Amino acid sequence: MSKPAPEIHTDKLPDQVGEHLADYVSGRSFRATPEEVEAVQVFSRRLVEELGYPKEVIQTRPQFRVRMRPSDVVTRGYPIDIAVFRSEKKLEDDVYIVVECKRKSRVDGEKQLKLYLQMCSAPIGVWFNGEDHLYLHKRLLRDGSVEWITLPTLPRRDQDLADIGSVTREQLVPPANLKSVFRDIRNHLAGNTVGITTDQRLAQEIMSLLFCKIFDELDAAPTAQMRWRAKVDEPEDKVADRIHALFKSVKAEYPDVFEPDEKITLDSKSLRYVVGELQNYLITVASRDAIGEAFEVFIGPAVRGEEGQFFTPRNVVQLMVGLLDPAPTERVIDPACGSGGFLIVTLEHIWAKLDEEGRAKKWPAARLDSKKRDAATHFIRGLDKDSFLTKVTKAYMAIVGDGRGGIFCEDSLEEPKNWRAGTRASNIALAQFDVVLTNPPFGSKIKVAGAHKLGQYQLARKWKKPKRSSDDWAVSAEFRKDESPQILFIERCTQLLKPGGRLGIVLPESIFGMPKYGYVVKWLLDNFVLRAFVSLPEEVFQPSTHAKTCIVILENRRPPDDYDIEMAIADWCGHDSRGNPTLRVDDAGKEELLDDLPKIAERVHPRLSWRS
Q1: pLDDT-derived band of residue 285, with 50, 70 and 90 as boundaries?
Q2: What is the β-pairing status of strands 407-409 and 380-384?
Q3: DSSP assignment, residue 340?
Q4: How far apart are CA 421 and CA 417, in angstroms?
Q5: Distance from CA of residue 162 to its chain's centroid?
Q6: Residue 62, preceding peptide bond in cis (omega within 30° of 0)
Q7: H-type helices in 446-578, by residue range?
Q8: Stretch 544-572: mean pLDDT, rounded?
């Protein structure tokens, strides 16, 4: 006989809409078109927050206009999206940089940019469409002709063109929008790189380069000139030689991430592009969220959708880690770790707890660092059957701190006795973990088969559907020929838990709504305490997939006859179906991101009480 239905607490968050934003420079309202949001506003922030140009020398609204003809001294024709002047007076002869953000191809963008530069006194022009860029310098020669020079990056407010590429580590600045910068790099290389035609090859190249940049930052003295640099007139081959030498040092530092014979094979022109785009930034001070989002820009196209692999948005990961609330001494595993998002956020969570404990107990810095390393090394584990993704996770964890030694390439659904000796020696086994956090691959096209695999799972058996409303699902002794991985992952995750352990998992919502999956719901409710259920909007995994998903939080203990389940419905997830931020301006004129997930965390977490 079925157990009585648990009482449900539902939090339905209010709908919010917004179609206009305040311009970053002028403060004037504008309609949030993709061109404005992804290009004009992004580059305006970059000019101010990264390159140091004050808003007072920048003009966006009303737009500055350049002449339609050199002889035209009265009328103005061509509107410029962003104009940067040498002084606050914003005189026509003082225009220094013009920025064109139309969503054109690179060829058309360059043609239009050169026209604008010929019609005004600015020596520098930028074409930026949110996905790619071009920096041009107009050099006037003695005979009156123009030489067009492609710049590796833009000069900062306190720099001359000749100073580009001469910064020391202490002069590097934190990136304001690392995801946008990385997207720019990725799209440029995908469209222009010679000799690399697959997303995974490109992702591997970019990951190697990112390690070179990080290593250079960590290895250089504050006043030392960076090896990661490209000057205005420096030959491409010279830049490339310096990066290849840097990569040799990287391989020596991270032998568990890179093979000794690995090489960077990007052509010299592409290498100079990447170096120029990143050379002003201090990547190592960026937040872990920023690094994670940017990292996934690089590797996302390499794996997205091939076997149901879709990266979990950062705010979803943060909600789940917050609800599970792992402690520094609890063992945590993600058996489908992908690029390591859950593990990184878990590290951040437990390190914050250690920071708090260290302040309360007045630990010396050395003791706190030791505690953090110990937590990363001994309590965090990750598995994934994709060797490229496990390498990515190791790289990601190495960048943000430690813990890469706990990441292994394994098929989590395989019998544990068949895992490699190194994996088993790392104490990865069933019933060994306090917390399991994961977003397993899902999709109707991918199936798991094989009697030795399926024989491990109750959910791989054939279940008899009830014929009458008073009947219940009944399990048989016969196994199916194959099963969807998301179904098996549910059971494998519970098998990894200690008694009393807790699971947070992202699943297709259809498992809880379609009658054919009734046996899965019965098995869960009969064997575990379902603590929380969060319905996510369809946009969460868009534009990658339209699958409607949910978060399930459960505890590994026999359920009582009656208990409460915390439930919440999110209407907004921070981005729309195209992946753009869902922003609005409130009545006070303040820009606000429409995202219900932090509100759900605030409401639901206090009700779970894992350690009462």
Answers
A1: confident
A2: parallel
A3: S
A4: 9
A5: 35
A6: yes
A7: 451-454, 485-496, 518-527
A8: 91
| Domain ranges, residue 570 | 304-608
CA distance 545 to 493: 24
Is 199 contained in some domain? yes
Question: Is 485 in the same domain as 339?
Answer: yes
Partners of residue 584 on adjacent β-strands: 592
Cα 409 from Cα 571, distance rounded (Å): 36
What is the rounded CA–CA span in Å between residue 165 and residue 521?
Answer: 60
Rounded to whole angstroms, the Cα distance separating 246 from 208 reads: 10
Nearest to 457 by CA among 413, 409, 497: 413
For residues 486 and 594, membership in a common domain is answered with: yes
Choose among 277, 110, 102, 108: nearest CA to 188: 277
pLDDT single digits (tens) 433-442: 999 999 998 7
Q: How far is CA 358 from CA 33, 355, 440, in A?
A: 47, 5, 35
Tokens of 37: 């949001």
Both tokens of residue 485?
A: 């991985």
Domain boundary, last residue among 285, 312, 329:
285
Summarised one tens digit per residue, pLDDT across range 377-429 is 999 999 999 887 888 788 778 767 677 889 999 999 999 999 999 999 999 99
Under a CB-based contact definition with an 8 Å cutoff, are residues 136 and 124 in contact? yes
Nearest 10 degrees: Cα torsion 513, 518, 519, 522 = 90
- 484 burial (CB, 10 Å; 0-12 / 13-18 / 19+) is buried
pLDDT: is 612 or 365 the higher one? 365
Quick one: CA dihedral 559, 564, 570, 571, positive or negative? Answer: positive
Angle between helices 178-192 and 268-278 (to 10 degrees): 170
